[in-house]
Specification:
Two copies of one chain form a homodimer. Chain A has 23 helices and six strands. Chain A is mainly α and 455 residues long. In chain A, strand 2 and strand 3 form a beta hairpin. The longest helix of chain A is centred in the last third of the chain and has 31 residues, at 358-388. Chains A and B meet through helix 1, helix 3, helix 12, helix 13 and strand 4 of A and helix 1, helix 3, helix 12, helix 13 and strand 4 of B. Chains A, B: Pfam families: CBS, MgtE, MgtE_N.
Chain lengths: 455, 455
């Protein structure tokens, strides 16, 4: 047993991957199939995600059809869609047999309507009814995330009866950490954690040991709110109820973990102008298309900055040193502003920033901008005086730097908050809006002062 | 019961927060204390994080000392440290009573050595021994994350004996989803999921129903690797073993969730040049200092770009239109390159990118750069011809754009990968290194071609 406890280290994936790619290149499909048989579905999913598109399809053909459903579950949206559109409805129905209803509903949502109908028609009546029920809830809500296979008990039975009931059932849903106590109208009145069930005397009534559920999840709560509740409360699973407080399902932590990661990655990817589901190994044309939208937005920003410079063409014509130095102030403003933007975006995402503290934050960031503005105005001003031997030019760049860093701090707080109020994703639009502001302010102040005092 | 199921929506925090700030301003401390009494420790922690520093200290004084340990656990590093340094060792010892060993060890690590010794000396001998054992493992490893209170059983007893043993114990550690089966040398030989325990017949032997543990976590595994294992395997808890495969502890999902979020946030915050633990409401001086380091790095980058322009001072002197347009190409290169950098950083973080697919990715991103380069070269070239009425200038900016976007794609892949090989955090240094490259290449090509063909 002792030699059996090695885990798959991240670097091992790449050893496997290299072995697999070599084997694929040499057409050793039997060898690859044998390797795949030894791997867990989630590791095969990881291998698929780390493979270029061509190898992905070959690898997929070599996986065990029995495991394909579990592998699909673990793949990210883009890659999953790419594989599923090539499968026949019978294959899909076979692959998805025995999957949790929430996961299955999630898969079916990403299929074209007629294909998902085909898959549903291949399922047995009871499973179909369950999946159709899950599909009735919007995707990004508690209803769309939840699983409907919950174990419910009544409050007037004894622990011993519950234990015998469970033994009769023979199997419990995955990650079951509590049984739910409901009344005759299916309304949730309490929960019995399994750890309590195990440590209670057999003749105790459920009513005596069950715990209150103060915060069952409403079925229409958004998935991000569900995730932050789980995170704050350290839950493993939680019951979901409808408006009548009737128990309709259960959400487990494994589905929440995916949302926590997605939400956190979303900010980073959006700030760079990428879709968070963007596949690292997507085909060239697809990537080029999705990225060019963002570049298009930046063309407008860059042209806006150029047209500011254009206003000062005469000044630039008379003194080339100004042109040489004019990129410094916008660059510093952009970096300082984006620090504030990143901080505010995270603060908004985790719910730390709201009406009650916006003003405080605005003052703080303006002051941070002022302090750093003074520091870097002195340093850059000094460098310019030494470099170009022009005291006035040093003073001008210093003044522009100071102004721009204060503007960057103020805009860094207000821009994301305003965008959020306008229902625009601050992570997506915040950075570019900020950079456009700091570019234009930086250029106008620097070139404007230069025009006033130097030419 | 039905009116009792409302959950704390994120926006409610800010209503509470506004009510609390108003009450604090008006000196209604009793009212605030009563509000805090009704709140869960994790919600109080959230309230503290969303408050400016001054209110934080007042609020802390008003919290129930019995709950302070749990509140501390939920706070982020910076804020927790700020509060703990003001507490007396007796207060700390009282606040931390009854805390899980892993959480307590985590708290003690952030205290100065002499204070944590003081706190330890206030604890009873058994607890102290446990915490000291936990402190012996490095912080960012499985050993540092794990909890030592695990329930172990032998394989030769029956399910009924196990059930009676658990009832005798009377309480199980939080989030217990499996009991661990060990041999006479404490070596882990299997696990008995609680769901299996509940559904097995009383006279069954543990040996017959226990499951293999293929991938117990080695005690020295890094916390990020532990998090990605949990995420991939959908675990709720997992056993930790030492080199002899002896069971030493257990890691639960709630500790892992924090690391998953931290790891995901790390990339976003680092890319903007922020520490991921940076407190949104940190004091001005502290924030200004931590951000000025990054601005300092950018000053060097901006001066490097200016010194490239400086090489072409003669050209700029002769044609101001060139100065007006010279910021466009670097700006587009920076945006395109940062898209690639963000994609590669995420790919490296989740383990999708390695030696086996770097070359493929490099080709792909170069091609994406080429395609978008052609597109935006045509557009910008056309705009410039129409705007400035100079065909050659349009051709020059188009050529520079094309070159710079291809360079951006290539550098976007190679820079983060090289940084990682050099053990520098690609999320921290990648974006700025990339921008420096695209600024310098963009300016040199544009100004160089302009010098050759226009002056």
């Amino acid at each position: 047993m002792a030699e059996n406890y090695e885990v798959e280290q991240p670097s091992q994936t790449h050893q496997t991957l290299q072995e697999v790619s070599r084997a694929l290149e040499n057409g050793m499909f039997v060898h690859v199939r044998r390797m795949l048989e030894d791997m867990e579905p989630e590791d095969i999913a990881h291998l698929l995600e780390a493979s270029p598109p061509k190898s992905r399809l070959v690898l997929w053909q070599l996986t065990d059809p029995e495991e394909q459903g579990e592998i699909l579950e673990e793949l990210s949206e883009d890659i999953k869609d790419g594989i599923m559109v090539r499968m026949q409805p019978e294959q899909l129905a076979a692959a998805t047999e025995g999957m949790d209803t929430d996961d299955l509903a999630y898969l079916l949502r990403s299929l074209p309507e007629n294909v998902s109908q085909d898959v549903l028609s291949q399922m047995d009546a009871q499973d179909r009814a369950r999946v159709e029920q899950a599909l009735a809830y919007p995707e990004e809500t508690a209803g769309g995330m939840m699983n409907t296979d919950v174990v419910t008990i009544r409050s007037d039975v004894t622990v011993d009866v519950v234990l015998r009931y469970l033994r009769m059932k023979g199997e419990l849903p995955e990650a079951t950490d509590a049984l739910y106590v409901v009344d005759e109208n299916s309304r949730l009145i309490g929960e019995l954690p399994i750890t309590v069930l195990l440590t209670s005397q057999p003749d105790t009534e459920v009513l005596e040991v069950m715990e209150d559920v103060d915060d069952a999840i409403p079925v229409d709560m958004s998935d991000s709110d569900v995730a932050s509740l789980f995170e704050r409360r350290n839950w493993v699973s939680a019951p979901v109820v409808d408006e009548e407080h009737q128990l309709v399902g259960r959400i487990t932590i494994d589905d929440v973990v995916d949302i926590i990661r997605e939400d956190a990655e979303h900010s980073m990817m959006s700030m760079a102008g990428l879709d968070d589901e963007e596949d690292t190994f997507a085909p060239v044309l697809k990537s080029a298309r999705s990225r060019s939208i963002w570049l298009g937005a930046n063309v407008l920003a860059a042209l806006a900055a150029a047209s500011v410079s254009n206003l000062f063409e005469n000044t630039l014509d008379q003194m080339a040193a100004i042109a040489v130095l004019m990129t410094i102030v916008p660059s510093m403003g952009g970096v300082a502003g984006n620090q504030t933007v990143a901080l505010v975006i995270r603060g908004l995402a985790v719910g730390h920033i709201g009406d009650s503290n916006t003003r405080w934050l605005l003052n703080k960031e303006a002051l941070v901008g002022l302090l750093n503005g003074v520091l870097w105005a002195c340093i850059i001003g000094g460098v310019v005086v030494l470099w170009k031997g022009n005291l006035m030019l040093g003073g001008i760049i210093a003044a522009a730097m100071l102004t721009n860093l204060v503007v960057a701090g103020v805009a860094g707080v207000t821009v994301p908050i305003l965008l959020k109020k306008m229902k625009v994703d601050p992570a997506l639009a915040g950075g570019m809006a900020l950079t456009t502001i700091t570019d234009m302010v930086g250029l106008s102040v620097f070139l404007g002062l230069a025009t006033l005092f130097l030419v």
